[in-house]
């Protein structure tokens, strides 16, 4: 049973990673619109704060890799970031634009920097989007800061320390007490990390016993999607949004509600 409205949809959940990054237009309104048109209800994105505090949906710390501009987002004002074009075509959106453009969608948000924490919570509050945003990060400290500001209204996933603790519990049965871990509603992990397998039946049992859904990223291979679904994962994040849709359709799990 879901502990938060963010996860109140029947699973397994399909997440469009960066809106579906395979076509090169990652984290753009066009990418997210295409995913929603295909039937996706869960969208994954990342956020950074510009030098003047505007919150943008963008993965990298710099514009260099995916846009026709250069520079660190944290050192640039919004007027310069908004002039950049992803793949030379699409503007970098503000996170609030995504919330406004897709009011029925749920957003899984990786908060990339400490400077983005306050603008993110403020954006969610202005949009009253508490039920449709889940926040995670590689940094447990950033997740903790978001949680301290937002309280239980906001869904959060486990940070790296929590994931390590859960992996340990899956072997030992012991889990260290942590308010941050107790507050989480899901765990979002790669199938493998540093040559070690994370997602297996033991890990899933440990997560499910704690009421945590397990979402696996970033899975682009049809065979791996099928194997993970057979294993019992609760959600998959993918760049290959047509492929995941097809795999779920074959299992009678599409369209997503």
UniProtKB/TrEMBL annotation:
Q: Where is the GP-PDE domain?
A: 12-248
What SUPFAM superfamilies does the entry give? PLC-like phosphodiesterases
Question: Entry's Gene3D superfamilies?
Answer: Phosphatidylinositol (PI) phosphodiesterase (3.20.20.190)
Q: PANTHER family of this UniProt entry? A: GLYCEROPHOSPHORYL DIESTER PHOSPHODIESTERASE, GP-PDE DOMAIN-CONTAINING PROTEIN
Q: What is this protein called?
A: Glycerophosphodiester phosphodiesterase
- Species name for this entry? Streptantibioticus ferralitis
Upper classification of the organism: Bacteria, Bacillati, Actinomycetota, Actinomycetes, Kitasatosporales
């Amino acid at each position: 049973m879901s502990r938060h409205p963010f996860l109140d949809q029947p699973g397994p959940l399909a997440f469009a990673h960066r809106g579906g990054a395979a076509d090169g237009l990652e984290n753009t309104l066009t990418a997210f619109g295409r995913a929603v048109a295909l039937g996706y209800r869960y969208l994954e994105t990342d956020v950074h704060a510009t030098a003047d505090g505007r919150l943008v949906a963008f993965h990298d710390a710099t514009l260099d890799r995916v846009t026709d501009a250069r520079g660190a987002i944290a050192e640039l004002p919004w007027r310069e970031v908004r002039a950049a074009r992803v793949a030379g075509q699409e503007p970098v959106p503000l996170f609030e634009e995504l919330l406004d453009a897709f009011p029925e969608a749920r957003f899984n948000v990786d908060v990339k920097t400490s400077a983005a924490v306050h603008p993110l919570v403020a954006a969610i509050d202005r949009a009253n989007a508490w039920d449709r945003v889940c926040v995670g990060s590689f940094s447990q400290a950033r997740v903790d800061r978001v949680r301290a500001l937002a309280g239980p209204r906001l869904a959060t996933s486990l940070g790296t320390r929590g994931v390590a603790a859960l992996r340990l519990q899956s072997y030992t049965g012991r889990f260290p007490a942590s308010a941050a871990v107790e507050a989480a509603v899901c765990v979002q992990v790669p199938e493998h990390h540093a040559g070690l397998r994370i997602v297996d039946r033991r890990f899933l049992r440990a997560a499910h016993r704690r009421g945590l859904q397990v979402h696996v990223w970033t899975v682009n291979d049809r065979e791996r999607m099928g194997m993970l679904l057979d294993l019992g994962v609760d959600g998959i994040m993918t760049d290959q949004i047509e492929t995941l849709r097809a795999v779920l359709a074959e299992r009678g799990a599409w369209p997503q509600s």
